Amino acid sequence: MHNGSFNLLVDSTSLHYSIIGSGEPLLICPVTWGVDGHRWTTLDELAKHFTLIRLDPRGTGTSGSVQEKSEYGIPTLVRDIEALRIHLGIDRWNIMGQSAAGWTALEYTLAHQSQVNTLTVVCSVPTGKFHKGTFRDPSHPLYNKFELISKEIRTLPASDRVKAFNRAVYQFDVQTEEARRTIDAIFSSAEFNTQRNQYFVMNELNRYNVTEQLHELSVPTLIIGGTHDVHVSPKWSTMMAHQISAAQLVMLEHSGHFPWLDEPEQFFAAVTSFLEKHSKSRVNR
C-alpha cells in the first residue's frame, strides 16, 4: 500500500480514503453522525508504528453523495469498509473506533471477525440507548448547561446549529486547555452533513444495539474508557470488557471523551503495546 489520498468507486458513489504511515494496517473507523472521517480523530501519532487508513462516509468530506437515505446508516458503512479492505488487498487488519465510530467498529467486527486481527473501542457503547449518566440525563450536573445550549442554537440554520451544538458540548469532556483548543479548532472548521446527522438521531440511535452479541466477539479487544467522560458513561467500557471474553480494559483516570488529547502518553502507549502484541496481518501482494 502507498501513502496518499485516493478514491474508490463503490456502487454508484465514490469513497474517499487516505493512507499514512507504515507497518500493520489499522483502520480508523469514522463516526456516522455527519462529519468526515479525517476531521474527527487526531491520531497521527500512531502512524509512527502502523499504517493508518481513514475513510470519509458517504455524503461527508470528499466522498460522493448518497442515493437513498438508508445509505447514511452504519450497515452501509460496514459494507463500504469491507469493500475498501478487499480493494486494498488486506487479508486481516486492525480496527479502531471511538465514540459513535466504536459502533461501526463493533458492527464491522461482528460481521467480519475472520478479517479482523484486533479491535480497539474507545469511549463507546454497545447500544444507542446510553444517555443515562451523561449530560443529557436530567440528573447530571451538566444537564442545565446542555439545555441552555440547546435553546441558544434553536433558531440557527440547520448546518450552523449542528456545528454550534457540537462545538459547545464537546468542550464538556476535555480536561486540559490544550485539549479544549484542539476540540474547538476541529469543530470551528468542520463541515457537517445535516441530513446524515438527522438520520443518525432519528434512525441509528434507535436501531443500533449489539449488547447481546458482545459475547460472540473472539478477536483480541482493547476497551479504553475515560473516567471523566460525560458523553458516554465509563460504566459502559467496564460492561463491554466483562462481556467480551478476549477483552482488555484500560480506564484512563484523567481523561474524558478524548483520551488521546487528555492523556496522550498513556493512551498511545496502551494502544501501541496492545497492537504490537496481537497484530499478525497479511497484505496480499
Please identify which CATH superfamily we are dealing with.
Alpha/Beta hydrolase fold, catalytic domain
Q: Which structural class do you get from the secondary structure elements? A: alpha/beta
Helix content: 25-40%
Mean pLDDT: 94
* Distance from first to last alpha carbon: 9 Å
Beta-strand segment tally: 8
Q: What is the level-2 CATH architecture name?
A: 3-Layer(aba) Sandwich
The geometry reads as: globular
Write the CATH fold name: Rossmann fold
Multimeric state? single chain
Strand order of the largest sheet: 1-2-4-3-5-6-7-8
Provide the gyration radius in Å: 18 Å
Count the DSSP helices.
9
Task: Provide an overview of this structure.
This protein is α/β, with parallel strands linked by helices and about 280 residues long. The chain has a single domain, classed as Rossmann fold, CATH 3.40.50. The chain contains nine helices and eight strands. It has an eight-stranded mixed beta sheet with strand order 1-2-4-3-5-6-7-8, with helices on both faces. Helix 7 links the parallel strand 7 (about 220-225) and strand 8 (about 245-250). Helix 1 (about 75-90) crosses helix 2. The termini are close together. Mean pLDDT is about 95; it is low at about 280-285.
Mind sketching the topology for me?
Layout (H helix, E strand, L loop, with lengths): L3 E7 L2 E9 L2 E5 L21 E6 L18 H15 L4 E6 L1 H12 L4 E7 L20 H10 L5 H12 L7 H13 L4 H14 L13 E6 L8 H9 L3 E6 L6 H4 L1 H15 L7
Parallel strand pairs: 3-4, 3-5, 5-6, 6-7, 7-8
Antiparallel strand pairs: 1-2, 2-4
Helix pairs in contact: 1-2, 4-5
